[in-house]
Design a protein that fits this description.
Order of helices and strands: HEHEHEHEHEHEHEHEHEHEHHHEEEE
CATH architecture of the largest domain: 3-Layer(aba) Sandwich
CATH superfamily of the largest domain: Response regulator
CATH class of the largest domain: Alpha Beta
Distance between the termini: 90 Å
Shape: globular
Number of helices: 13
CATH topology of the largest domain: Rossmann fold
Strand content: 15-25%
Low-confidence stretches: 1-40
Structural class: alpha/beta
Radius of gyration: 26 Å
Strand order of the largest sheet: 7-6-8-9-10-13-14
Amino acid sequence: MKPLQRMLSTLVAVVLITLLAACGAPAAQPTAPAASPAPAAGTIKIGALYGITGGMSSIDAPGLNGMKLAVKEINAAGGVLGQQIELIAVDGKTDQTTTTNAASELINVHKVVVIGGLNDSTFALAAGPIAQQAGIPFVTAGATLPSLPEQIGDFFFMAPFGDDAQAFAIADYAIDDLKAKTAYMLVDQAYDFTTALAAFFKQRFTEKGGQIVLEDIYRSGDTDFSAQIAKVQALNPPPDVLFISAIPNEAGITTRQFREAGLQMPIISGDGFDTPLIAEVAGELADEVFFSTHVALDNVDPKVQKFVTAYTQEYGKAPENAFAVLGYDTLNLIADAIKRAGSADPTAIRDALAATQGFPAVTGQITYAPGQRKPNKSVTIIQVQDGAYTFVKEITP
């Protein structure tokens, strides 16, 4: 071939390749034939991240069940934006490293557009920054450290109230209703939630004229509280109330051991005590226990009873605690934001979440004030007596 002919051939080849690339059709590959969509095509993928196993399981497993129930109802009603929701759940195993890896898996492997879940602030602080960096909205169902949105960033939202609200509420109840003037404090040092709850309780209790007569600590996973109990028994006069700041795993065992030691004054706490483990572990000793939480399942509010009926029909048992409701609320809040955004784009979902006003959650209306991603909600006080959990009072601190 002559040089001029080679140049012309090369030029023609370059032009053809350029035109094919511009049209998005690789020269070496035939056009793919039309095919049925894959099973997941057309779905909106939402991640569910909980500690289904480990110390958080008694509240996280019900939370996931609440999310699954919400997805079933939404999909049965036609889904969102004409698409079905695909809920992808990964177990964080109540472990910070596993939780961090689970968040990465949901984002990078499963390609979710938003994540909901987690009921403890320590684990939210592990997973939240992963979602923030990836630009994926994260709505915590039950983590209550009030500074979480500011610590993590503008893609992070809280469905529950903050620890300040629930600690203030149980402190108010202790002084105003139980007429307590003195309190003993036992605090798990392992979690952001337990230390923050204790700090806010102490602040409110002392501001209202109460006195903390002794502060003691333990580490999550402890099973013997005899040393702490001996210190309480040595107090003269004894404290009016025992404030125990614990995650669910220690709620039942501390209640049982303090009662077995003959300490009968009221035990008070936050939503870490909203677990079946109090009745299951302490049994008939589970009395005069009061805790602040997000909703009472025996509340006659029609929204609450509708949820209780639906959950019971779906799982063959009544909802275990308020965290089942929070999971349900969180998924519905996310679906509402996707609908209002008119898109499953993560940034659009973030913007719609930030604009939420008066969302009618079962656990109370959710509104985010401008620049805020934590709602102001009322707090419910529950009493455990002889193993039964009963609505006592609703407080707006």
